[in-house]
UniProtKB/TrEMBL annotation:
This is SET domain-containing protein. Keywords: Metal-binding, Zinc, Zinc-finger. Residues 222-543 form the SET domain. It comes from Monascus purpureus. One of its GO terms (cellular component) is nucleus.
Amino acid sequence: MPQSPTALKSKTTQLYSDPHNPFLHLERGLLYEGLGFPDLAAADAYRALSLFESVVDPDGCEFHARRVVSPDGCMNESFDCGEEQEEENDSVPITRDEHDDTIGKVYILLVRCLVRCGCLRDAYEFCGRGIVLVRGLHGYNDEEEELRKLMREIKRVYLARMNKPATSDESSGGDGAEINPSILPAQGFARRVLYPWNEHEPDRKAPETLRLLNERLKDVAPKCEVRAVALPALHANAATTAEKDKDNFHDHQTDSDVSIQLGLFAKEDIKPGEILLRESSLLTATNRLHDDLCDACNAPLPDLSAVEPPVPCEDCDDTIFCSRQCHDQAQQTYHGAICGLDGLQSIGKDIPDPKDKADYLYLLLLGRALAMSATQDVHPLELPEVKYIWGDFHDYDYNYDDDVDANVDNDPSFSLPFSFHLNILQPMRLLEEMALDPFVSLPRYDTWILNTLYAKFRGTASGRLSTWDGGPEVCAVHPLWCLANHSCDPNVRWEWGGEITFMARGETEKAVWAGLSAEEREKRRKTSSTGIRADEEILNHYCDIGLDVKQRREWARGALGGLCLCERCVWESGEGERAK
Ligand SMILES: C[S@@+](CC[C@H](N)C(=O)[O-])C[C@H]1O[C@@H](n2cnc3c(N)ncnc32)[C@H](O)[C@@H]1O
């Protein structure tokens, strides 16, 4: 049976009013699972688990499992005490018996959903812990059997990865040998969708949105304008979105394989070498532990002996800004809520495996967005740096059919990288270090909100590599800069120090197409304009344009959501005119 969206809405309302009640987390998790969101279900199951653990180990846990009781003293399913946190004297502790009766179900939901997302390493750890706990509490029972079934599923994937056949024990339903969990993937995927209950996403192509963005663009890029544009649909169901949007889009494009999005256009001619956009942003992050970069804009810090030396925060000496302006903006924008909170400094910075560095930079961007939201007392999805940026969402059918059992292997909308650590555990740590209760603050920082932030950052952030080891070390979202679309034959190049800039490419900086004869090359040179003409689209590049077509497509795939179909790629891959 499809789960009801109304049931989810009312369970969420109940949960926000009674946030330390582990039963509500478990119940909402089951609803999320039924609606096809195993990632959100896993997060709820983990919150239920943390609360239940406080029943057994109250001294080891900061947040304790309690449930609100209604004024007449009974546990009331529909009791709604509003937005406020439950009062201590209106709530009772969860008992040990309740823990013992329910903890098996919590482990099963957590493990099952992590498996469906493909986060097998953490699924394995929790599954092992769950089996031991359930056996200790009740002896062998159905719940242990369910967990053992999940364990066999995890081990099957492990054996397939190791290219080993299952032993006769495994084939006949036994648990098989111990495995090395580090071989299992920690990172899986969540659905990258615009959640149907997300009321913060604007109509990005509405005239009032374009007016607002163009107003902001006046200072940053006075010769440019934001317009709706038809792009080739690069992931499977983007075309459906375009179909829905056609009525609102007044252009000549009628092909269904398009995705209607925004782009940047020149309003007037721009000369080669001219800087057409300058934007600075405080939505930045760096994984350098003791760096010499401005905490706000990530520009290099000036020398101590400079006329305008670096400016430290008066209240926490470790935080340094490149200028008085960055200092003042930071205090109002994000630093106010986190000033002096030392525990935050180490989160996401000291990453042992270089492969994880880029993913942890997104966590740090998330941390900056949470600090902005707390300092300004604004919902994170309403932040001006976040609200209008592209999230590369897939379509989602709310009448989700439970029987389909959507998972990472059978549904292309599972395209948002998702892991237990980056999407569940570390965000809870961030909130705790910000002195926020991660349960009470769910209305602002629920997992679907964090996933939406991640989707937006992954679609738009730019990165800078370390000159030391070549790994990613700084990233940022520049909300106007990131409106420019990609081409492997771009008409601008970009540079990023403190601010990010676009400069119009001159003739000698244009991409050289592979496979063109000298004659064709000369013909292209003569017909292509120098600089950028009025009404031409500003085309950025999301990868190194010196690479060959195969490598370029691989590099840009993450940012584009699919293989690049720009004119140059189509030509060089032989998919276009040349193939005919
Ligand atoms: C940084 S955003 C660019 C701005 C975006 N079009 C918007 O509406 O805000 C990146 C997204 O734009 C789209 N995009 C950019 N360049 C494209 C291209 N050459 N072909 C198809 N889609 C492109 C992809 O969907 C990609 O995920």
